[in-house]
Amino acid sequence: MKAKQYIREIIERSCLPARERKRLKTDLENEIYSALERGESIEQIIERMGDPDEIAAEIYENYTDISIRPFLEYKSKKKLFGLP
Asked: Residue 84 and residue 74: Cα distance in Å, rounded?
């Protein structure tokens, strides 16, 4: 996984307002690129930081003091054997 993809996944999963997403993106880029300059590989950075979904959940919880992120449920209009 590339650094930009990793950052994008965290931001997309964070469920934060647009203004906060921009700030989060800047913070993540600074942290990752400074670690790359220190000689860490992107794989080491990702392993150290953790799963994007877990990071996003923690960021959302710290931002809102709510542990459950809002998600939209997608239901297909087409049905197969009575199931969407």
From this structure: 10
* Helix runs in the chain, H state only: 3-14, 18-37, 42-49, 52-64
DSSP state of 38: T
- Amino acid 1: pLDDT: 78
The pLDDT value given to residue 75 = 64
Contact 52, 6 (CB under 8 A): yes
Residue 47, CB half-sphere, CA atoms under 13 Å: how many?
A: 5
Chain segment 24-34, per-residue pLDDT in tens: 999 999 999 99
Per the CB < 8 A criterion, the answer to whether 49 and 28 are in contact is no
C-alpha dist (Å) from residue 52 to 71, 74, 83: 16, 21, 30
Measured CA to CA, the distance from residue 22 to residue 6 in angstroms comes to 15
